[in-house]
Design a protein that fits this description.
The protein is mostly helical and about 80 residues long. It contains four helices and no strands. α2 packs across α4.
Length: about 80
């Protein structure tokens, strides 16, 4: 499995969607980190576009947020997991 970005702004969309979904669930980064078993600093960096998430990490976050991994990406981008 690999990560595939079809547009240059897909990473920005992932970051924005991750933050938006997390906040809509009224979760702090720390709470999401505990639920997803992903380091809080990774979530922080991903939300700010400072790191690309590994597909396995994106799946963990999506599972903890209760959404399909594809929902972390807007319609214009694509993440292949």
């Amino acid at each position: 499995m690999h990560c595939c970005y079809n547009s240059p702004d897909t990473l920005d969309k992932l970051n924005g969607n991750l933050r938006q979904i997390r906040q809509s669930r009224v979760l702090s980064r720390k709470e999401l980190a505990l639920q997803s078993h992903v380091d809080e600093s990774t979530i922080y960096r991903a939300e700010r576009g400072r790191t690309k998430l590994r597909p396995s990490t994106a799946r963990k976050l999506a599972r903890a947020l209760g959404v399909p991994p594809e929902e972390l990406i807007s319609q214009q981008g694509r993440l292949v997991l």
